[in-house]
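Lab notebook page, bench 4
Experiment: in silico fold of construct C2
Operator: M.H.
Input chain length: 364 residues
Purpose: comparison with the prior construct
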Amino acid sequence: MVISFIYFYTKRDLNKFVVNKEVDMQRSTAAVSLLTLFSYFPSFAQASTESDFMFADKAVYVPEEQIVVTLKANLPEIAANAWIGVIPAGIEHGSEATNDKHDLQYRYVRDQKEQVLFFNAPENDGIYTLRFNDSDNNGTEIDFLTFEVNRQSWIEQSRVQTDKRIYHPNEPVVVTFRVPGNFIDKGWLGLIPSNIEHGLSSKNDQHDMAYKYTGKEKSGTYTFAAPYKTGDYDFRLNDQTGSRGIEVASVSFSVSVKPWLEKIHFKTDKAVYSPGEAISISYSVPDTVNDSAYFAIVPSDVAHIDERTVDNHDVSYKKIDGKYQHTLQMSAPSKPGTYDVRFQDNDSNGYELGYVSFSVRAIE
Protein backbone atom coordinates (compact mmCIF):
# COMPACT_ATOMS: atom_id res chain seq x y z
CA MET A 1 0.00 0.00 0.00
CA VAL A 2 1.06 3.63 -0.33
CA ILE A 3 1.38 5.73 2.81
CA SER A 4 1.49 9.53 2.63
CA PHE A 5 2.62 11.54 5.64
CA ILE A 6 3.86 15.01 6.53
CA TYR A 7 6.60 15.99 8.97
CA PHE A 8 8.72 19.01 9.87
CA TYR A 9 12.27 18.72 8.69
CA THR A 10 14.22 20.71 11.31
CA LYS A 11 13.61 22.02 14.78
CA ARG A 12 14.50 25.58 13.80
CA ASP A 13 12.05 26.01 10.99
CA LEU A 14 8.59 27.06 12.20
CA ASN A 15 7.47 28.40 8.82
CA LYS A 16 5.54 25.47 7.38
CA PHE A 17 8.57 23.84 5.77
CA VAL A 18 6.80 20.60 4.99
CA VAL A 19 8.03 17.56 3.15
CA ASN A 20 5.72 14.95 1.63
CA LYS A 21 6.94 11.41 1.16
CA GLU A 22 5.31 8.39 -0.41
CA VAL A 23 6.62 5.02 0.58
CA ASP A 24 5.57 1.81 -1.07
CA MET A 25 5.34 -0.61 1.83
CA GLN A 26 5.28 -4.28 0.97
CA ARG A 27 4.53 -6.32 4.05
CA SER A 28 6.65 -9.45 4.44
CA THR A 29 5.08 -12.75 5.41
CA ALA A 30 7.43 -12.97 8.36
CA ALA A 31 6.31 -11.62 11.72
CA VAL A 32 9.56 -9.73 12.19
CA SER A 33 8.91 -7.58 9.13
CA LEU A 34 5.75 -5.96 10.39
CA LEU A 35 3.86 -2.81 9.62
CA THR A 36 5.37 -0.54 12.21
CA LEU A 37 4.94 2.29 9.77
CA PHE A 38 7.62 4.73 10.74
CA SER A 39 10.24 2.10 11.48
CA TYR A 40 10.60 1.85 7.69
CA PHE A 41 11.94 5.38 7.38
CA PRO A 42 13.94 6.32 10.49
CA SER A 43 16.02 8.85 8.53
CA PHE A 44 12.88 10.93 7.90
CA ALA A 45 11.91 11.29 11.54
CA GLN A 46 14.60 13.83 12.55
CA ALA A 47 13.97 12.71 16.12
CA SER A 48 16.02 14.70 18.64
CA THR A 49 16.62 14.55 22.38
CA GLU A 50 17.63 18.16 22.98
CA SER A 51 16.19 21.55 22.02
CA ASP A 52 16.72 25.11 23.26
CA PHE A 53 14.78 24.63 26.49
CA MET A 54 14.25 20.86 26.91
CA PHE A 55 15.87 17.44 27.02
CA ALA A 56 14.04 14.15 26.37
CA ASP A 57 15.39 10.89 27.77
CA LYS A 58 15.47 9.35 24.28
CA ALA A 59 14.26 9.82 20.71
CA VAL A 60 12.32 6.60 20.02
CA TYR A 61 9.62 5.10 22.23
CA VAL A 62 7.22 2.21 22.11
CA PRO A 63 3.48 2.86 22.53
CA GLU A 64 2.47 4.06 26.01
CA GLU A 65 6.09 4.17 27.22
CA GLN A 66 6.96 6.88 29.71
CA ILE A 67 8.65 9.98 28.28
CA VAL A 68 10.87 11.95 30.65
CA VAL A 69 11.28 15.62 29.73
CA THR A 70 13.82 17.73 31.63
CA LEU A 71 13.59 21.52 31.43
CA LYS A 72 16.75 23.55 31.09
CA ALA A 73 17.64 26.27 33.53
CA ASN A 74 17.67 29.03 30.88
CA LEU A 75 13.90 29.23 30.37
CA PRO A 76 12.66 32.54 28.95
CA GLU A 77 9.94 34.60 30.56
CA ILE A 78 6.72 32.59 30.27
CA ALA A 79 3.20 32.83 31.65
CA ALA A 80 2.13 30.87 34.72
CA ASN A 81 -0.01 28.69 32.46
CA ALA A 82 2.75 27.85 29.96
CA TRP A 83 2.45 24.26 28.83
CA ILE A 84 4.10 21.46 26.88
CA GLY A 85 1.99 19.17 24.74
CA VAL A 86 2.34 16.03 22.62
CA ILE A 87 1.30 16.96 19.06
CA PRO A 88 1.45 14.90 15.85
CA ALA A 89 4.41 16.12 13.78
CA GLY A 90 2.26 16.95 10.76
CA ILE A 91 0.39 19.73 12.57
CA GLU A 92 1.46 23.27 11.64
CA HIS A 93 3.91 24.82 14.07
CA GLY A 94 3.89 28.22 15.73
CA SER A 95 0.43 28.85 17.13
CA GLU A 96 -0.43 27.79 20.67
CA ALA A 97 -4.10 27.78 19.72
CA THR A 98 -3.41 25.29 16.90
CA ASN A 99 -1.39 23.12 19.24
CA ASP A 100 -4.20 23.25 21.78
CA LYS A 101 -6.65 21.87 19.20
CA HIS A 102 -4.44 18.90 18.39
CA ASP A 103 -2.64 17.97 21.61
CA LEU A 104 -2.84 14.33 22.66
CA GLN A 105 -1.47 15.09 26.14
CA TYR A 106 -0.23 18.17 27.95
CA ARG A 107 1.47 19.23 31.15
CA TYR A 108 1.73 22.69 32.64
CA VAL A 109 5.32 23.78 33.10
CA ARG A 110 4.48 24.87 36.66
CA ASP A 111 3.79 21.20 37.52
CA GLN A 112 7.40 20.19 36.97
CA LYS A 113 9.30 18.65 39.85
CA GLU A 114 13.02 19.23 39.88
CA GLN A 115 12.73 20.45 36.29
CA VAL A 116 11.12 17.18 35.14
CA LEU A 117 7.77 16.46 33.47
CA PHE A 118 6.42 13.03 32.54
CA PHE A 119 4.38 12.04 29.49
CA ASN A 120 3.31 8.78 27.89
CA ALA A 121 4.06 7.94 24.28
CA PRO A 122 0.94 7.79 22.06
CA GLU A 123 -0.63 4.41 21.29
CA ASN A 124 -0.14 4.71 17.53
CA ASP A 125 3.14 4.44 15.65
CA GLY A 126 4.27 7.69 14.09
CA ILE A 127 6.27 10.90 14.41
CA TYR A 128 5.29 13.31 17.18
CA THR A 129 6.51 16.51 18.78
CA LEU A 130 6.72 17.89 22.29
CA ARG A 131 5.82 21.56 21.87
CA PHE A 132 6.60 24.24 24.43
CA ASN A 133 3.96 27.00 24.50
CA ASP A 134 4.59 30.20 26.46
CA SER A 135 0.93 30.62 27.49
CA ASP A 136 -2.38 28.81 27.52
CA ASN A 137 -4.19 31.88 26.27
CA ASN A 138 -3.50 32.46 22.58
CA GLY A 139 0.22 32.09 23.18
CA THR A 140 3.15 31.17 20.97
CA GLU A 141 5.07 27.96 20.47
CA ILE A 142 8.63 28.74 21.50
CA ASP A 143 10.37 25.39 21.28
CA PHE A 144 9.85 21.75 20.36
CA LEU A 145 11.39 18.29 20.27
CA THR A 146 10.59 15.56 17.75
CA PHE A 147 10.29 11.92 18.72
CA GLU A 148 9.20 8.68 17.12
CA VAL A 149 6.87 5.94 18.31
CA ASN A 150 7.32 2.49 16.80
CA ARG A 151 7.20 -1.14 17.84
CA GLN A 152 10.33 -2.37 16.10
CA SER A 153 12.06 -3.11 19.40
CA TRP A 154 9.14 -5.33 20.40
CA ILE A 155 9.51 -7.27 17.17
CA GLU A 156 13.26 -7.61 17.66
CA GLN A 157 13.08 -8.67 21.31
CA SER A 158 9.92 -10.82 21.51
CA ARG A 159 10.19 -14.60 21.27
CA VAL A 160 7.79 -17.56 20.99
CA GLN A 161 8.92 -21.19 21.22
CA THR A 162 7.30 -24.61 21.28
CA ASP A 163 8.70 -27.64 23.07
CA LYS A 164 9.06 -29.47 19.72
CA ARG A 165 8.23 -29.05 16.06
CA ILE A 166 5.99 -32.01 15.15
CA TYR A 167 2.93 -33.15 17.10
CA HIS A 168 0.28 -35.78 16.62
CA PRO A 169 -3.37 -34.65 16.45
CA ASN A 170 -4.67 -33.21 19.76
CA GLU A 171 -1.27 -33.58 21.43
CA PRO A 172 -0.49 -31.04 24.18
CA VAL A 173 1.78 -28.25 22.90
CA VAL A 174 3.87 -26.35 25.45
CA VAL A 175 4.43 -22.78 24.30
CA THR A 176 6.76 -20.30 25.97
CA PHE A 177 6.92 -16.59 25.24
CA ARG A 178 9.08 -13.65 26.22
CA VAL A 179 8.52 -9.92 25.62
CA PRO A 180 10.53 -6.85 26.61
CA GLY A 181 9.78 -5.06 29.85
CA ASN A 182 8.03 -2.15 28.15
CA PHE A 183 5.55 -4.40 26.31
CA ILE A 184 1.95 -3.35 26.93
CA ASP A 185 -0.40 -5.54 28.97
CA LYS A 186 -2.85 -6.17 26.11
CA GLY A 187 -0.93 -8.94 24.35
CA TRP A 188 -2.34 -12.25 23.20
CA LEU A 189 -1.00 -15.51 21.81
CA GLY A 190 -2.98 -17.25 19.09
CA LEU A 191 -2.93 -20.57 17.24
CA ILE A 192 -3.23 -19.76 13.52
CA PRO A 193 -2.96 -21.88 10.33
CA SER A 194 0.38 -21.11 8.67
CA ASN A 195 -1.21 -20.16 5.35
CA ILE A 196 -2.82 -17.08 6.90
CA GLU A 197 -0.95 -13.87 6.06
CA HIS A 198 1.33 -12.61 8.82
CA GLY A 199 1.42 -9.12 10.27
CA LEU A 200 -1.91 -7.87 11.59
CA SER A 201 -3.50 -8.81 14.88
CA SER A 202 -6.94 -8.31 13.34
CA LYS A 203 -6.16 -10.88 10.62
CA ASN A 204 -4.87 -13.35 13.20
CA ASP A 205 -7.97 -12.74 15.30
CA GLN A 206 -10.19 -13.71 12.38
CA HIS A 207 -8.48 -17.08 11.98
CA ASP A 208 -7.30 -18.13 15.45
CA MET A 209 -8.23 -21.65 16.52
CA ALA A 210 -7.30 -21.03 20.16
CA TYR A 211 -5.81 -18.12 22.09
CA LYS A 212 -4.64 -16.92 25.48
CA TYR A 213 -4.04 -13.40 26.78
CA THR A 214 -0.55 -12.67 28.08
CA GLY A 215 -1.67 -9.76 30.26
CA LYS A 216 1.01 -8.14 32.37
CA GLU A 217 3.32 -11.13 32.17
CA LYS A 218 6.62 -10.56 30.36
CA SER A 219 7.35 -14.26 30.05
CA GLY A 220 5.40 -17.41 30.59
CA THR A 221 4.34 -20.87 29.51
CA TYR A 222 0.99 -22.00 28.17
CA THR A 223 -0.31 -25.39 27.09
CA PHE A 224 -2.52 -25.71 24.02
CA ALA A 225 -3.92 -28.75 22.27
CA ALA A 226 -2.56 -29.32 18.77
CA PRO A 227 -5.30 -29.19 16.11
CA TYR A 228 -6.75 -32.52 15.09
CA LYS A 229 -6.35 -31.74 11.41
CA THR A 230 -2.87 -32.47 10.08
CA GLY A 231 -1.00 -29.54 8.55
CA ASP A 232 1.21 -26.55 9.34
CA TYR A 233 0.38 -24.04 12.04
CA ASP A 234 1.84 -21.07 13.92
CA PHE A 235 1.66 -19.62 17.37
CA ARG A 236 1.60 -15.86 16.84
CA LEU A 237 2.20 -13.28 19.54
CA ASN A 238 0.27 -10.02 19.09
CA ASP A 239 0.65 -6.80 21.04
CA GLN A 240 -3.09 -6.13 21.28
CA THR A 241 -6.43 -6.89 19.68
CA GLY A 242 -8.20 -4.55 17.27
CA SER A 243 -7.14 -2.58 14.25
CA ARG A 244 -3.99 -1.13 15.88
CA GLY A 245 -2.59 -4.48 16.88
CA ILE A 246 0.40 -6.09 15.19
CA GLU A 247 2.08 -9.47 15.32
CA VAL A 248 5.46 -9.25 17.02
CA ALA A 249 6.69 -12.85 16.98
CA SER A 250 5.74 -16.31 15.76
CA VAL A 251 6.85 -19.93 15.69
CA SER A 252 5.74 -22.66 13.29
CA PHE A 253 4.98 -26.32 13.94
CA SER A 254 3.35 -29.26 12.19
CA VAL A 255 0.62 -31.70 13.08
CA SER A 256 1.20 -35.15 11.64
CA VAL A 257 0.24 -38.76 12.29
CA LYS A 258 3.92 -39.69 11.91
CA PRO A 259 4.60 -39.66 15.68
CA TRP A 260 1.82 -42.22 16.04
CA LEU A 261 2.95 -44.35 13.09
CA GLU A 262 6.37 -44.78 14.65
CA LYS A 263 4.77 -46.37 17.74
CA ILE A 264 1.97 -48.46 16.21
CA HIS A 265 2.61 -52.16 15.63
CA PHE A 266 0.11 -54.90 14.87
CA LYS A 267 -0.10 -58.20 13.01
CA THR A 268 -2.41 -61.09 12.33
CA ASP A 269 -1.53 -64.59 13.51
CA LYS A 270 -1.33 -65.83 9.92
CA ALA A 271 -1.77 -64.74 6.30
CA VAL A 272 -4.49 -67.11 5.00
CA TYR A 273 -7.79 -68.01 6.63
CA SER A 274 -10.81 -70.05 5.79
CA PRO A 275 -14.25 -68.34 5.80
CA GLY A 276 -15.38 -67.57 9.36
CA GLU A 277 -12.11 -68.64 10.92
CA ALA A 278 -10.94 -66.76 14.02
CA ILE A 279 -8.32 -64.09 13.40
CA SER A 280 -6.03 -63.08 16.26
CA ILE A 281 -4.72 -59.51 15.99
CA SER A 282 -1.94 -58.62 18.40
CA TYR A 283 -1.18 -54.93 18.67
CA SER A 284 0.64 -52.20 20.53
CA VAL A 285 -0.44 -48.58 20.07
CA PRO A 286 0.42 -45.37 21.97
CA ASP A 287 -1.92 -44.35 24.77
CA THR A 288 -2.44 -40.99 23.08
CA VAL A 289 -4.78 -42.41 20.45
CA ASN A 290 -8.49 -42.17 21.11
CA ASP A 291 -10.34 -44.81 23.07
CA SER A 292 -12.62 -45.00 20.04
CA ALA A 293 -9.76 -46.17 17.81
CA TYR A 294 -10.63 -49.43 16.11
CA PHE A 295 -9.54 -52.23 13.80
CA ALA A 296 -11.68 -52.89 10.74
CA ILE A 297 -11.68 -55.70 8.19
CA VAL A 298 -12.09 -54.17 4.73
CA PRO A 299 -11.76 -55.59 1.20
CA SER A 300 -8.26 -54.74 -0.04
CA ASP A 301 -9.61 -53.04 -3.17
CA VAL A 302 -11.28 -50.31 -1.06
CA ALA A 303 -9.27 -47.11 -1.46
CA HIS A 304 -7.11 -45.90 1.41
CA ILE A 305 -8.71 -42.47 1.64
CA ASP A 306 -10.27 -41.76 5.01
CA GLU A 307 -12.10 -43.31 7.92
CA ARG A 308 -15.47 -42.63 6.37
CA THR A 309 -14.57 -44.79 3.38
CA VAL A 310 -13.51 -47.59 5.72
CA ASP A 311 -16.71 -47.17 7.71
CA ASN A 312 -18.80 -47.53 4.55
CA HIS A 313 -17.07 -50.75 3.45
CA ASP A 314 -15.97 -52.58 6.57
CA VAL A 315 -17.05 -56.19 6.96
CA SER A 316 -16.55 -56.04 10.72
CA TYR A 317 -14.73 -53.91 13.30
CA LYS A 318 -13.67 -53.82 16.93
CA LYS A 319 -12.68 -50.87 19.13
CA ILE A 320 -9.62 -51.01 21.36
CA ASP A 321 -11.66 -49.64 24.31
CA GLY A 322 -8.67 -48.13 26.06
CA LYS A 323 -6.52 -51.25 25.73
CA TYR A 324 -3.27 -50.07 24.15
CA GLN A 325 -1.43 -53.39 24.14
CA HIS A 326 -3.63 -56.41 23.61
CA THR A 327 -4.73 -59.28 21.37
CA LEU A 328 -8.25 -59.16 20.02
CA GLN A 329 -10.27 -61.71 18.12
CA MET A 330 -12.17 -61.12 14.88
CA SER A 331 -13.65 -63.47 12.29
CA ALA A 332 -12.56 -63.93 8.71
CA PRO A 333 -15.18 -62.83 6.15
CA SER A 334 -17.38 -65.55 4.69
CA LYS A 335 -16.58 -64.51 1.12
CA PRO A 336 -13.19 -65.58 -0.27
CA GLY A 337 -10.88 -62.77 -1.35
CA THR A 338 -8.13 -60.47 -0.22
CA TYR A 339 -8.76 -58.23 2.80
CA ASP A 340 -7.03 -55.72 5.06
CA VAL A 341 -7.06 -55.18 8.77
CA ARG A 342 -6.94 -51.39 8.99
CA PHE A 343 -6.34 -49.42 12.15
CA GLN A 344 -8.31 -46.15 12.45
CA ASP A 345 -7.60 -43.57 15.15
CA ASN A 346 -11.29 -42.87 15.78
CA ASP A 347 -14.75 -43.59 14.43
CA SER A 348 -15.53 -40.02 13.34
CA ASN A 349 -13.73 -39.37 10.06
CA GLY A 350 -10.31 -40.07 11.55
CA TYR A 351 -6.99 -41.22 10.13
CA GLU A 352 -5.85 -44.63 8.96
CA LEU A 353 -2.74 -45.52 10.95
CA GLY A 354 -1.69 -48.74 9.29
CA TYR A 355 -2.90 -51.98 7.78
CA VAL A 356 -1.98 -55.62 7.14
CA SER A 357 -3.42 -57.80 4.41
CA PHE A 358 -4.62 -61.39 4.50
CA SER A 359 -6.54 -63.80 2.27
CA VAL A 360 -9.68 -65.85 2.71
CA ARG A 361 -9.79 -69.06 0.71
CA ALA A 362 -12.70 -71.45 0.40
CA ILE A 363 -12.29 -74.90 1.93
CA GLU A 364 -11.97 -77.54 -0.76
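Observations: The longest strand covers residues 141-149. The chain has a mean pLDDT of 87.
Next step: discuss at group meeting.
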